[in-house]
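Fumarylacetoacetate hydrolase, pasting as requested.
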Amino acid sequence: MTKNYPVANRGLPEDWRDGIFLGRIATAEGPTPIMIRDGSVFDMARVAPTVSALIAGTVRSGGERLGGMDVLETANLLSPVDLQCIKACGVTFAVSALERVIEERARGDHTLAAKIRGKIENVLGGSIGSTVPGSPEAEALKQALIGEDMWSQYLEVAIGPDAEVFTKCPVLASVGHEAVIGVRSDSGWNNPEPEVVVIAGPDGKAVGATLGNDVNLRDFEGRSALLLGKAKDNNASCSLGPFIRLFDEGFTMEDVRSADVAMTIAGEDGYVLEGHSTMREISRDPEDLLRQTMSEHQYPDGFALFCGTLFAPTQDRNEPGRGFTHKPDDVVTISSARLGTLVNRVATSAQAPAWTFGIGDLFTNLARRGLLPA
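Structure tokens follow.
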């Protein structure tokens, strides 16, 4: 993959000097957590062997200095999370809700999407975007839509009291900046989902954020919501990075709430699609999403939580009315001013590098390196 990225220092934001960032790199010894602060890169493995442990211990200092930012030029960047569970929330934006209803009504058939989209937009108008989930107004809208035979399970999680929260991929299965991302080879209607990802510690409280691509198969999920697992969890179908920006006085949850996310898809066929999402239009506050994720569950190693996306590509790529779908070697660039830039190239999940390094492998590696406490 050609290293031709718009932001210097391997995807860090322009104001990286003002923040503290956590990441992971592959070294000859094994996966190693790093911290970027004060213009230097630090090996944190002897302080805590995993990113999840660094977060649980609220570590902001220490480590062995590897050098200046030039260290990142040749580093093999991994996903910045390791033992954290990777969770995701769906249908948290009004536009996303409408597109999911379209998928459901079309039963995964992209040729029906344009017609159904027009009908739904005509019935809903602009009312859903200003509806507070779980409110009396939301319940009234639900009853009106039921009367029009337009109610959907996707609208239930869009404006009902309960958010959709699902597991995006297994622990250690996410990929990082500049890695290949995968879509199922038997999918003919799919798209990237650029999102802000909140990072929480074992107590469920947010400690920072990063960017993510919640790769989605619209045809699979559209045929049946029970196919969500196949639509969302495939080899290399979850990318995160480039780094976790930790909260501090200059970067807080308010910056997450106001984050703008831009995305470009560039195909080898000359096709270019640009999209934009803003967290200002999210229907559910990130703190509420964190609360609902933790409501009756525990995450002793913390978790990463995809907050959802406003982006739902409807621009035709080839045939009129077919909409967008990925082609091999598409380059997806996701960026946000305070979080940096995440770049990945598309392949099928079957062709992407296989996930072979699991939890057992990690602990065997850490033990061999003498990094586990006695």
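Note for the archive: The mean pLDDT is 90.
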